[in-house]
C-alpha cells in the first residue's frame, strides 16, 4: 500500500486495496457454501448467512452447531464469544477516524470489520476515511457472499460420493485456520492445546454429558481465553511505546521540528 502523504485514501483506493482479500474470501466461502448445502441448507439460506455475518470462524462454528441441532440461545452465545474480538477492532479503528465521522457511518463500517480488513485499515493510519473503509470492506463482502453462493450451487452438481466426502472439509478448514499461527506463536499453541483438552474433558467425562454441544464450545473457548490472559498477558505499555516510536517523525525519516 503506497503512502499518500498529502491526501487521504478514497473509496476507489479502498476498492483496489480490498481486491486481494476479495479473491481469498471467495475460496474460503466457497467451502462454506459446499458444506452448508450438503448439510441440508438451501443455497439462498447459506448465502444469506454469509451476507449478514462476514466471519469465517464464527460462521463455520455456527454452521456446525446448526447441523448438530443446537438451540438458538447457545448458537448466539457461541458466535458472540467467537466474534467478540471485532468489538475491540472496531474501537481501535474508531480512534483513527476524523471527528466529523457520524454515528451512522461508524455503524456501517462495523459491518465490514474482519481480521484482514482491520489489518489493512490499520496500515492507512491517519489517512483512514469512512469512504476508504467502505470501499475496502465492500469488495471482500461481495467476494464472501459470491463464494458462498457458487459453492452452494456447485455442490448440487457434484456426484453423491464427492458430496459425502465434503463432510471432512469443515475440519480441514479449522485445521488450516489454527495451524499457521500456532507454528509462529507459543501462546497460541498453548491456547489450542488447552481448548482441545477442555473439549475432551467436557465430551467424555460423564458428569458433563447433560451439557449441550453449543455450551461445551462456549465453556472451552472462555476458559482457554482466560488461561491465555492469565499466563500470556499482552504487554500493552511496550506495544504502545513501539507504536509511538514507529509513528514519530524521526522514525519516518522526517527531521524533528
User: What's the helix count?
Assistant: 13
Q: State the major sheet.
A: none
The residue-averaged pLDDT reads 77
Q: Would you identify the regions where 5 or more consecutive residues have pLDDT less than 50?
A: 236-257
What gross morphology would you assign? globular
User: Level of helix content?
Assistant: over 70%
Radius of gyration: 21 Å
Determine the N-to-C terminus distance: 27 Å
Question: In what range is the share of β-strand residues?
Answer: under 5%
**Total domain units:** 2
What keywords describe this structure?
disordered C terminus, mainly alpha, 13 helices, 257 residues, 74% helix
Tell me what the structure shows:
It is a single chain. The chain has 257 residues and is mainly α. The protein has two domains: 11-170, no CATH class; 185-244, no CATH class. The protein has 13 helices and no strands. It has helices spanning 11-38, 43-53, 56-67, 72-83, 85-94, 103-110, 115-124, 130-157, 160-165, 169-184, 186-204, 213-231, 236-247. Helix 5 (85-94) packs parallel to helix 7. The longest helix has 28 residues, at 11-38.
Write the layout of secondary structure elements.
Layout: H1 11-38, H2 43-53, H3 56-67, H4 72-83, H5 85-94, H6 103-110, H7 115-124, H8 130-157, H9 160-165, H10 169-184, H11 186-204, H12 213-231, H13 236-247
Helix pairs in contact: 1-2, 1-3, 1-8, 2-8, 3-4, 4-12, 5-7, 6-8, 10-11, 11-12
Amino acid at each position: 500500500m503506497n503512502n499518500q502523504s498529502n491526501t487521504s485514501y478514497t473509496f476507489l483506493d479502498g476498492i483496489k486495496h480490498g481486491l486481494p482479500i476479495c479473491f481469498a474470501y471467495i475460496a474460503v466461502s466457497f467451502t462454506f457454501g459446499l458444506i452448508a448445502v450438503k448439510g441440508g441448507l438451501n443455497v439462498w439460506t447459506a448465502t444469506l448467512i454469509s451476507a449478514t455475518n462476514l466471519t469465517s470462524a464464527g460462521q463455520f462454528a455456527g454452521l456446525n452447531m446448526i447441523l448438530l441441532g443446537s438451540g438458538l440461545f447457545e448458537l448466539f452465545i457461541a458466535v458472540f464469544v467467537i466474534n467478540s474480538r471485532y468489538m475491540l477492532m472496531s474501537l481501535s479503528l474508531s480512534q483513527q477516524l476524523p471527528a466529523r465521522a457520524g454515528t451512522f457511518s461508524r455503524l456501517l463500517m462495523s459491518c465490514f470489520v474482519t481480521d484482514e480488513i482491520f489489518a489493512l485499515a490499520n496500515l492507512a493510519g491517519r489517512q483512514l476515511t469512512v469512504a476508504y473503509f467502505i470501499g475496502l470492506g465492500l469488495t471482500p463482502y461481495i467476494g464472501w457472499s459470491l463464494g458462498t453462493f457458487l459453492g452452494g450451487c456447485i455442490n448440487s452438481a457434484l456426484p453423491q460420493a464427492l458430496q459425502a466426502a465434503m463432510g471432512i472439509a469443515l475440519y480441514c478448514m479449522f485445521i488450516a485456520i489454527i495451524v499457521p499461527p500456532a507454528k509462529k506463536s507459543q501462546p497460541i499453541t498453548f491456547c489450542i492445546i488447552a481448548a482441545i483438552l477442555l473439549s475432551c474433558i467436557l465430551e467424555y467425562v460423564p458428569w458433563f454429558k447433560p451439557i449441550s454441544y453449543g455450551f461445551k464450545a462456549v465453556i472451552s473457548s472462555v476458559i482457554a481465553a482466560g488461561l491465555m490472559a492469565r499466563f500470556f498477558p499482552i504487554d500493552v505499555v511496550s506495544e504502545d511505546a513501539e507504536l509511538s516510536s514507529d509513528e514519530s517523525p524521526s522514525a519516518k525519516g522526517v527531521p524533528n521540528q
